[in-house]
Amino acid sequence: MSSLVMPAPDAATLARRAEIVADLRMIVPGEGVVDAVNQMRAFESDGLTAYRQLPLVVVLPQTTSQVSRILKYCHERNIRVVPRGAGTSLSGGALPLEDGVLLVMSRFSRILGIDYPNRAVTAQPGVTNLGITHAVEAEGFYYAPDPSSQIACSIGGNVAENSGGVHCLKYGLTANNLLGIEMVLMNGEVVRLGGKHLDAEGYDLLGVMTGSEGLLGVVTEVTVRILQKPEIARALLIGFPTNEQGGQCVADIIGAGIIPGGMEMMDLPAIHAAEDFVQAGYPLDCEALLIVELDGPAVEVDHLIGKVEKIALNNGSTSCRISQNEEERLTFWAGRKAAFPAVGRISPDYYCMDGTIPRKELPRVLAGMRQLSEHYGLRVANVFHAGDGNLHPLILYDANVPGELDKAESFGADILRLCVKVGGVLTGEHGVGVEKRDLMPEMFTQADLDQQMRVKCAFDPGHLLNPGKMFPQLRRCAELGRMHIHRGQMPFPDIPRF
């Protein structure tokens, strides 16, 4: 692993490894426990492959009862646990710990129920995002959040990162489509939040769990909202001579009161990479390419297409193609969906960033990224959810060249600082993990971070669930003034309590 600072491994836990492995095999028999080094290599990193670490042991439970027993066992013995879904996280959120149990939820892979009258699907967390849509598409329904990794990423991981996708502008992120979860706390307690009803009473604990990155509990069941497919969907492929004109077109479309089903933008390097990879028919003579999808009743879609065309012309568009059938619409999106692997063909390595800005700041931030690119001497390809300002700069580098990874990370950190400076945030959907952990003070005050830590402590006072992630200092709840009571005995019992 690199020089990234993580919690120091507990020597006592490492010394008891054989005993821990044997005990876990009693809870998850058969092939549910992986402890051989060569087999654990498959789990040493997530999508942020620059950071790698072998876990103490890998456990793959199949039932909520097993998850509960594993967490209770680790809680009683002060053993750290890192939850993991499909391992597609791009922020290092599932990076293992040397002294930690890696709790892999991939065997939770069944659809548990489809309720069309309530427009809900209940699934285990290992079901893929796209798997939910496949389960209901025959009846004309689908699940709206669609991250580019939807063919592989798990719905449990989507909850952990509050994932979005190209259609999140109109239909929302995971948080806007999540109805309920079953989860297991670090002490082994199983709780349910929400359900098939629209809103739950009391505190919004479901909202707290969504995007909590495995720091508060382990999700074992997910209930999501499904939507009926719109009557028609058509996409426009619009080219612009500059990124600034494309960015202004995005702002003008939203300003006109039009909310597209999806609105994505790509710059020149990304356009060429995607076209070479997918051959979607993208124009290669433009600096910026905007994909705008409009859906709903046919008469409404036709009307809005005319309005968007006019807005694009007013912003200097040089080309505009409108999909004439479903196959062509999907082809337009195929290049955007494949942009990440496409960029991988033009550079030995790339670092995928994730920050979010106000839409009106898009031209300013794109200009700032160009300056940073020149400063660091590294190319950058841009693909992003233009409608909600969620940027995904892809910094191109060669890990075999000494110092280039460090330069790429510094470049990425400066992009995120720029996002915060213009009124944006550090992440839109990839999460904080270890990648943005030490940048949290750029956005939050110490009082803010302390309050977030108090939420963590309320769920996991021993700081055993996914430690070393999200918070910039490696701290424990005791440092916030929480009192630890061991076996009912308070420290300094003679001191008066008020």
TrEMBL record:
Keywords: FAD, Flavoprotein, Oxidoreductase. InterPro entries: FAD-bd_oxidored_4_C, FAD-bd_PCMH, FAD-bd_PCMH-like_sf, FAD-bd_PCMH_sub2, FAD-linked_Oxase-like_C, FAD-linked_OxidoTrans_Type4, Oxid_FAD_bind_N, Vanillyl_alc_oxidase_C-sub2. Residues 51-229 form the FAD-binding PCMH-type domain. It comes from the Bacteria. Transmembrane segments: none annotated. Its cofactor is FAD. This is FAD-linked oxidase C-terminal domain-containing protein.
